[in-house]
Amino acid sequence: MENTDMPDWKRNLYILWLGLFFNHMSYTLSVPFFPLFLQNDLGIESGLEAWSGVSISISFLISGLCAPFWGSLADKYGSKLMLIRSGVGLAIAHSANYFVQDPYTFIAVRVFQGLMAGFNPASITLVGTNTPEKHVGYALGVISTSTAAGGILGPLGGGVLSQWIGLRECFIASGIITLLSALLVLGVKESHRSHKVASTSILGDLKRAASTPGLMRIYGLILLVSTSVLIIEPVLTLYVVQIGGDVSHATLSAGIVFSAIGVATVIMGPRWGKIGGRIGYEKTLFIGLIGGGIGSLLQLTAYNLVYFGSLRFIYGLFFAAVYPALNALIIKYAEHDFRGRAVSLSQTASQFGIVLGPLIGGWPGIPFIFLLTGIVLLGAAWVVKASDMKQMNKSDRIIHENIGRT
Question: pTM for this structure?
Answer without folding.
Answer: 0.78
